[in-house]
Amino acid sequence: MVEAMLSSMLTEILIPVAALVGIIFALVQWLVVSRVKMVPGSANGANNNNSSKNGYTEYLIEEEEGVNDNNVVNKCAEIQNAISEGATSFLFTEYQYMGIFMVCFAVIIFLFLGSVQKFSTKSQPCTYNKEVMCKPALANAIFSTVSFLLGSLTSVLSGYLGMKIATYANARTTLEARKGVGKAFITAFRSGAVMGFLLAANGLLVLYITINVFKVYYGDDWEGLFEAITGYGLGGSSMALFGRVGGGIYTKAADVGADLVGKVERNIPEDDPRNPAVIADNVGDNVGDIAGMGSDLFGSYAESSCAALVVASISSFGVNHEFTAMCYPLLISSMGIIVCLITTLFATDIFEIKAVKEIEPSLKKQLIISTVLMTIGIAVVSFVALPSSFTIFNFGEQKVVKNWELFFCVAVGLWAGLVIGFVTEYYTSNAYSPVQDVADSCRTGAATNVIFGLALGYKSVIIPIFAIAISIFVSFSLAAMYGIAVAALGMLSTIATGLAIDAYGPISDNAGGIAEMAGMSHRIRERTDALDAAGNTTAAIGKGSAIGSAALVSLALFGAFVSRAAITTVDVLTPKVFIGLIVGAMLPYWFSAMTMKSVGSAALKMVEEVRRQFSTIPGLMEGLAKPDYGNCVKISTDASLREMIPPGCLVMLTPLIVGTLFGVETLSGVLAGALVSGVQIAISASNTGGAWDNAKKYIEAGVSEHARSLGPKGSDPHKAAVIGDTVGDPLKDTSGPSLNILIKLMAVESLVFAPFFATHGGLLFKL
Description:
- This protein is an all-alpha fold.
- It has a two-stranded antiparallel ribbon. A two-stranded antiparallel ribbon has the order 3-4.
- It has one domain (14-30, 101-765).
- It is 79% helix and 2% strand.
- Helix 3 runs antiparallel to helix 4 (137-176), helix 16 (495-517) runs antiparallel to helix 17 (522-564) and helix 18 (575-616) crosses helix 23.
C-alpha cells in the first residue's frame, strides 16, 4: 500500500498550529468587541469615524431624540453586571455539583475497568489480535479515568468561557444598535465567533496533547491507547448532559414565568423592567442556550473523534502505525478551523449588513460558504493524509477502502448537516408558510395553535431522517463503521461557524432585553428584535445539525461497542435483544417527561412569585418601585440544581445496570432503541418549540398584512401565540436538545465499560 503524502512530522506540527491559529483568531475578535466601551461618553469615541459602513451613519439615535446618553450607558452597564453575576454564580454552584459527580464517576470507571483482569499489572493478549501482547487492563482503567477527567474539565471550560463571552458582549451589542443594525450584528457575531473558535481549538488541542502524552506509555499498543482515549468523549458528554438539563430548566422556568404573568396577565412588553422574572430570564439565556450548548457541541465533537480513532486503531492505520492516517479525524477538524476562519471574515469584513432583511441571509451564507469551502478542504486532507488504499475494521473482517471513498463519507455527512439545517429553517422560520399557518391558527385560540404546532413538529422529522438514513447507507457501504464516524465528524467539521451562529442568537436576545430594561428608544428595540428573530431561526438550524450529528456519532459508537464487546450479530428476534430494544425506545420518553415536569414545577413557583410581587409591592405596575429580581433568580437556581439530578442519573446509570445485570446483547438493544426513538422526538420537539416561538414573533413584528391582521401585541391571537410559545419553550430548549446528549452519552459510556460488560456482564442470565 502507498504511504500518505503528508509526513508524520508535518502532521505533528499542523494540528497544534491550526488549534493555536483558532485561539489567536478568537482573541483578536475579543479585542475588537472590547473596543465598544461600557463607560459614559465613549459612544463617539474610537468607533466613530463618521463612515456610513453597514448602511448607517455613526450619529446616535439618542442624541437625535434628546435622550441622555450617559444615563443609558450606565443603565446598560448595571444590567449587564446583574446578568453576568447571576450567570457566574449559577454556573459555579452547578459546577460544584458536577465536580462531585465527576470524582464519583471517575472512581467507578477505575474500579469497573480495573476489575476486568483483577487489577493485574501483567500484559495481556490484545482484544483483536491475540498473538500480540497489549498493556494490562489496570493501565486502561487508569488512563480511561484520566481522559474522562480531561474531557469533563474541557467541557466545563467550554461552557464557562461561552457564558463569560456572551455576558461581556450583550450590552455592547445593545449600545452598537444605536449606530445601526449592521454594527450590532457584527458585534454579536464576532462575540459568537470568539466562543466558536475557542471551543473548536481547545477541544482539538487538548485531545491531541492527550494522545501524545498517553503514547509515551502505550508505545506501539495503539489499540489500548485509543480505547483509553474514549473516556475523553464520555467526560465531555456527561458534563454536557448536566449543563444542558440544568441550564435548560433554569432558563425555561424563568421564561415561562415571565411570559405568562407579564405578557398574558399584565399585558406588559417582553423584558419589561417591572417584571420580577426578567433578570432570571436573561441569565437563563446565558447558562442554558450558551453554556449548555457549548458543552453539548464539545461533547459531540469529542465523541465523533473518539469513535473514529477507536475504529482506526484496529484498522490498517493502527496495525501498521501510520500516524498521519490515524490522525485523519484531527486533520479534518484542523482544516475546519481554517475554513471557518475564512468564512467568518465574509460576515465581519466582506459582506456589509445594510438592512434588517439582510441579517438572516447573511447567517445562511455563512453556513453555505463554510460547507462549500470545507468540501474542498476535506478533499485536500483525504488525498494528502491517507494512503491511496487501506483496510478498515468491519465486524471481525478488514474491508479494503480507497481514499476517495473516505472523502465521500465525510462530504456526505457535511452536506447532510446542511440539508437538515435548511429543512429545520423551513419549518421554524416565519418567512415560510408552515410557521405562518401556525400563526394563523391562533385566530381561534391556543388549542388550535397547539394542534398545528405539534403537527408541524411531527412532519418536520421526515426529510432529516431520510438525510440521516442516506448518510448512514452511503458511509457504511463505502467504509463500514469508520465511514459513519467520519460522516459525523464531517457534520461537525464547521463547528466554529455553527457555534458562532448559535451563540449570536442568545447574545442578540439579551441585547434586546437590556435595551428594554434600560428604557432605550423603540427603534433600538426593533433592531435588536430583528437580530433576535434571525438568531432564533439559526439556533433552530444549529439544533437540527446537532441532533443529526448525534445520530451518526451514537451509531458509530454503537458499532465500536458491538466490536469491543465481541458481539457477532445483533439479532432483534432474540428475546435478550428485543426487550432491550423496546426499553431503549421508551427511555427518551421517560427522560423527556422528567425534564418537562421539572420545567413545569419550577415555572409554577416562578408564576406564583411574580404574581405575589405584582400584588404586594405598591407602585410596581406604575414603575415607581423596583421588583425583587433576586428571589426569582433563587427560584430558578434551586429548581434547576435539584431537578437536573434525576434525569442525569437515568442516563448515566442505565448502561451500567443493563450491562452488568443483563449483558451486552440486551445493552446493544437498549442503545439501538434509544437512538431510533430519541432522534425522532428530539427533532420534533425542537422544531415544534421553534415554530411556536417564531409564530409569536411573526404576530408581534407585524411586517406583512397577514401578520398585522393577527396583532397587535395583547390581542387574542397574540395571547394564544404566547401560550403556544410557553408550551414550546421546554420542548425546544430543555427536552429536545438534551435528548441528543442522551443517545450519544449512553453509547460512549457503553463503549468505555465494554471490557467490563464483556467479562462480567449478564449476571442475571448466569444464575
